[in-house]
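In the laboratory, one determines a bound structure by crystallizing the protein with its ligand and collecting diffraction data. In a computational setting the workflow is compressed into a single prediction: the sequence and the ligand go in, and a structural description comes out. We illustrate the idea with biotin.
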Amino acid sequence: MNKSKTTKSKIIELLKTNDIISGEEIGKILNISRTAVWKHIQDLKKKGYQIETLAKGYRLINNLDLLNEEELSDLPYKVYYFKEITSTMDVAKDIAEKEESAIIIAETQTKGRGRLNRIWHSPKGGIWMSLIVKPSLSLKEAFLLTYTASLATALALEKIARIRVYLKWPNDVIYRNDNEEKKLAGILLEVKAEIDKIKYAIIGIGINVNNEISSVEPQAISLKEILNREIKRKDIIKALVENFRYLIKKEPKEILNAWKEKSLTLGRKVKIIHPEGEKIGFALDISDEGALILKTEKNEILKIYSGDCIHLRSIS
Ligand code: BTN
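The predicted complex, in structure-token form:
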């Protein structure tokens, strides 16, 4: 989708590329009045930008880690940004009915949810987003979306944060340090289908970036904790979206093979927790339909389509 930049994002661009720029100059470039410029500047201040008004013009004080529509205006999707909402998944459902594709981002979520109905802590500083897509896939092929999204997220984190990350079945992005595995990001897929065809899919992506990790999540880690510095969230979002759009066009086999290469699950003894019970076994492979192939201690070969996976034996 090609969408034109809003006046506000053009003003932000001008403020970023000029140390000081007058209202008159901005007005001339954008063909709007000085009063209109002034009004846009007031709105931008409300959105969190710190803009000084000096005798010679306007000056953007710092380059904050903002994630609003202006900062993400060069994404190939329409962006809906909220300071606080229940869950980006809820809002995405309404938007998916009317938009072809879009990204919903929230600074904080009051009812963030994870897989298997878990609470997803979503304080300020993380990336909490839902991507709406309408792929020509059947319901049976929907699993490809989560594999693609977790792979796209992992590759984006490696590119932007310059750290090595891994994938845990079904779709966790893991940071590994001294044999300790901690979760950096997770993916939640919600699909609406008609007969067997996907009408829309909402891919929820949660990444611990500059946020504090709650004490009730000892298995989680943030990028800030790993790097000892903050990282610009929009750089991660841009790389992630670019990766996703590139990977989703690939053959399913290629996506799965790339996922498997980054997997920490395959080749391990694992415990799968499922509402129907627990299974312990050796994680052999991912099937063409996205199932985890497990060889149990009784030598049964099982295909596991959902559940929680615990890595039992550490690898060197
Ligand atoms: C998981 O359990 O690993 C999946 C976590 C998904 C969290 C994201 S944050 C953005 C979106 N909104 C939600 O409420 N959940 C997903």
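The chain has eight helices and 14 strands. Keep in mind that any predicted model is a hypothesis to be tested, not a measurement.
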